[in-house]
Design goal:
Layout (H helix, E strand, L loop, with lengths): L2 E6 L2 E6 L33 H13 L7 E6 L4 H13 L3 E6 L2 H9 L12 H9 L2 E4 L6 H4 L6 H6 L3 H10 L3 E4 L6 H9 L4 H12 L3 H16 L4 E4 L5 E4 L1 E8 L6 H4 L15 E6 L5 E10 L3 E10 L2 E6 L4 H11 L2 E7 L7 E2 L4 E2 L8 E5 L14 E5 L3 E4 L2 E5 L2 E8 L2
Parallel strand pairs: 3-4, 3-5, 5-6
Antiparallel strand pairs: 1-2, 7-8, 7-19, 8-11, 9-10, 10-14, 11-12, 12-13, 14-17, 15-16, 17-18, 19-20, 20-21
Helix pairs in contact: 1-2
Length: 421
């Protein structure tokens, strides 16, 4: 999968780019270094094309914004077409859109010249009101090129800039709003991350826009059916032609469809972690009973520091043992050790998503229709309590049986479940 190093809550973490960031504790993302690329530049009125279609997916399909909802939209000059399209969709739904736009010059002044005592000041009453009073916040990139504005993330200036994060984190926990950071394919750091994994940036952008405009309603229908099957299941079995064969007992109440969990009603009472969206969307997740995952895992492709081939390990009482890989083995072993126990299983729903494998790197987005992903470690977003660093294992040709009934066969999501008892 394409990964981006991003500073959140004053610590480094890993963010899945095509999915978007769901770990933000402040309104601002901090991307990794990368080269500038050419795409739609500057301001301009949002057209009725791809931005409008994405806005409809986000506002109507994912968040289901209704009359009277307060929606905060933030971003910089290159984000204006998308911000405008989102604002129009919010208004059309009867909501109230609050646009907050930055400029590169203002951001550059903040980074280079603003007096240190003014950097990272505690939230004002307006900031608190926006967090506590909004029903939804959507952030887009603030800067045309973040690293040209903040070139040194270890500097005293940047540390000062980040010092209000703990207060903002507390406000987020006390809020009821939903949140999305919409990582755009033109972002220099996104392009750099894609290229680092051997992906053509133009091909990646084409894939992103197709996945971002895939029909959410049809995905949701299949996702809800899968959730019901998983919620009632006693056992899930996953096999692949490469030799994967493991089972686990699911915690039924944790089966979750990202496309059906982020309306205001569905998100009410959920923790901050579960009110943060990913986009493009489209996957179902379920958590295993602790220690119930048993068997073997054989993944032909993955991505660590380099492209990974033939990843393999045994599962005993929910934990991986005897971890091996044909390439980048030390990186895989370290990542698996940090992650620890099995945290979740995901099944992709998005028909426009697809894995892209190459010698220089692999892109294996969890939303790819029919792709099964075994997740180790962090499952808080999906209702669990494991906070260890996450490691995911994509199973590209998996068959998944729920109490003997196939829901995925050889990497294809079945339109209707088939009994294979």
């Amino acid at each position: 999968m394409v990964r981006l190093a991003s500073l959140r809550c004053a610590r480094w973490t890993v963010v899945i780019l095509l999915v978007g960031s769901a770990l933000a504790c402040t309104p601002e993302s901090v991307p990794a270094a990368g080269a500038q690329v050419t795409d739609r530049q500057g301001a301009g009125v949002a057209d009725t094309g791809r931005e409008a279609r994405v806005a409809a997916q986000v506002i109507d399909g994912l968040f289901r914004v209704g009359p009277g909802e307060e929606v905060v939209l933030r971003g910089g000059p290159r984000s204006l077409p998308m911000l405008e399209a989102l604002a129009v969709e919010v208004l059309a739904a009867g909501g109230k859109a609050h646009l907050l736009v930055t400029t590169d010059a203002e951001r550059r002044y903040r980074a280079r010249e603003l007096a240190l005592e003014y950097l990272g000041a505690p939230p004002a009453h307006v900031d608190s009101a926006l967090i506590l009073g909004a029903d939804l916040e959507i952030n887009l990139p603030y800067d045309s090129d973040f690293r040209s504005i903040w070139p040194d993330l270890a500097s005293e200036r940047f540390q000062r800039h980040q010092r209000s994060n703990p207060i903002l984190s507390a406000l987020n926990e006390h809020s009821t709003r939903r949140y999305l950071y919409l990582a755009m394919p033109w972002q220099p750091e996104v392009v750099a991350a894609a290229r680092s994994q051997g992906l053509d940036s133009a091909a990646y952008a084409t894939l992103w826009w197709a996945a971002a405009t895939a029909d959410i309603d049809s995905m949701a229908v299949r996702g809800v059916a899968l959730r019901r099957q998983l919620a009632a299941a006693k056992q899930v079995r996953v096999t692949t032609p490469e030799g994967t064969d493991f089972t686990f007992t699911p915690i039924g109440r944790t089966a979750r469809v990202d496309l059906a969990a982020l309306s205001r009603a569905a998100a009410r009472g959920e923790s901050w972690a579960r009110r943060q969206a990913t986009f493009p969307a489209g996957f179902v997740t379920v958590l295993p009973v602790a220690g119930s995952a048993t068997g073997r895992v054989r993944a032909p492709a993955n991505q660590c520091d380099q492209a990974v081939r033939d990843e393999a390990f045994e599962l005993r009482a929910g934990r991986p043992e005897r971890v091996r890989a044909a390439t980048d083995e030390a990186c895989v072993q370290a990542a698996v050790a940090r992650a620890g126990a099995v945290g979740f299983l995901a099944i992709g729903l998005n028909p426009a998503m697809r894995p892209m494998l190459g010698a220089a790197g692999n892109f294996l987005p969890e939303q790819s229709r029919g792709l099964v992903t075994l997740g180790l470690g962090d499952n808080v977003r999906f209702g669990g309590t494991d906070t260890a660093p996450r490691w995911t294992v994509p199973l590209t040709r998996a068959t998944v049986r729920v109490d003997g009934v196939a829901v995925v066969r050889d990497g294809r999501l079945l339109a209707a479940a088939a009994s294979e008892r």
